[in-house]
Amino acid sequence: MALSKKIETPTGAYEQPLGLFINNEFVKAVDGRTFETINPHNEKPIVAVQEATEKDVDIAVAAARTAFEGPWKNVTPSDRGRMLVKLADLFEENVATLAAIEALDNGKAFSIAKLDIANAAGCLRYYGGWADKIHGKVIDTDPETFNYTRHEPVGVCGQIIPWNFPLLMWAWKIGPAVATGNTVVMKTAEQTPLSALYASKLIVEAGFPPGVINVLSGFGKVAGAAISSHMDIDKIAFTGSTIVGRQILQAAAKSNLKKVTLELGGKSPNIIFNDADIENAISWVNFGIYFNHGQCCCAGSRILVEEGIYDKFLERFKARALKNKVGDPFHAETFQGPQISQIQFDKIMGYIEEGKAAGAKVEVGGERHGSEGFYIQPTIFSNVTDDMKIVKEEIFGPVCSIQKFTNEADAIKIANNTTYGLAAAVHTTNLNTAFRVSNALKAGTVWVNNYNMLSYQTPFGGFKESGIGRELGEYALDNYTQVKSVRIRLGDAMFG
Ligand code: ADP
């Protein structure tokens, strides 16, 4: 089987690599297994890629270990930064191709995929800037001792990413790991392997030595499990579901106690007070739930509206949701494309049916969209109670619930009544309300009068069962460094 294939997209043709990317080369899987990736717009296979098993993980880890102990150690921090900045430039130069691959393989709108690529480039460049600014401290304890700390790389990092933002998650993970001098074995999601393989070509062009970044296509239960239980991986970073996050933590505990950071699910509240700028709030609420077809871990899926504006808000929000253009990712006006897979489609439709059966009222949507592709109508449920599954569990689709609250204390109580704690938002024109409620919400990110506005400069991660550790910003550097304390005795022997 050839290790690349010409693929046609509505914006042009390109050459798609299909191999596992190890030691800066595309190679066949040891067992020769392949799997198909599906276009969620028409449910047809796009192409088959090589499938990594435990044996390929072992080879990739050995490559990453050799690079870590040898060539990569000898690259100066400034040169590490230069390579990341070059990779960012290459992302920008290849934005049209990378975005087309995302639209084809993931189903997100091409116009929005271009923003993903711009953000991924920004993130890589940002961490390129950090590469030569990683340092420890001198700590004064007494005149006879000189103490200093070094922030050293952790080693070989396993990274497992999801399918909802394939290249953005790739950049969030690779940026801080490589900037701090680690090497990486990355497993992409089985639903969306293509863009990361194309980006792997750019790794070579950016000048990274072989083995520094290795990218494997494969399944969670095989390649993912092999990474999380590997005895020669020093750290694992995972983004995905809470259920798999638990398995990864267990695998790390049972193997070599590798360090673990997890970015997991959410059921985030979006709170609108009587005094909010209602048109603005509706735009953000709509964007908060329907952006990326509701496939965001931080999606604002529980909408809480103060009783004074509830009726007016609901009417206008319904009208706004109905205006969202659902359809072909390559159509210029599309905002919402298909869900990623048949499995996700069925899961979301299952939640919708459960909501209906439990007595919630469908205000908008509630059905599939069209007859081909994994499309679902933007859906709003009212008349919900806190014990309903659609209010408690992460749906990961274009489905939200809307509830009324009576006052600030009531809003905070409902908002925090969840096992998750990834994000939340407050819409108000009162500064005091904004601060008080932001401080009271148990969430890793709080947006005031906006939603989903992430920046690679600001940290992102979860309270409670939404995760461990923070990605992005300076905070992410802590995940990828370990502190060494060196104590030098300047005086004579102390104990004779
Ligand atoms: P989703 O349900 O949204 O697909 P998952 O948490 O299942 O999210 O998947 C996110 C990533 O985790 C994917 O790359 C997937 O292959 C991987 N994964 C799934 N199961 C496991 C597992 N048992 N061990 C390690 N990785 C896994």
TrEMBL record:
The active site is at 263. It comes from the Eukaryota. It comes from Polytolypa hystricis (strain UAMH7299). GO terms for biological process: acetate biosynthetic process. Belongs to the aldehyde dehydrogenase family. Keywords: Oxidoreductase. Residues 27-486 form the Aldehyde dehydrogenase domain. Its EC number is 1.2.1.3. This is Aldehyde dehydrogenase. Gene3D superfamilies: Aldehyde Dehydrogenase, Chain A, domain 1, Aldehyde Dehydrogenase, Chain A, domain 2. Pfam families: Aldedh (PF00171). The keyword Oxidoreductase applies. PANTHER family: ALDEHYDE DEHYDROGENASE-RELATED. It catalyses: an aldehyde + NAD(+) + H2O = a carboxylate + NADH + 2 H(+). GO terms for molecular function: aldehyde dehydrogenase (NAD+) activity. InterPro entries: Ald_DH/histidinol_DH, Ald_DH_C, Ald_DH_CS_CYS, Ald_DH_CS_GLU, Ald_DH_N, Aldehyde_DH_dom.
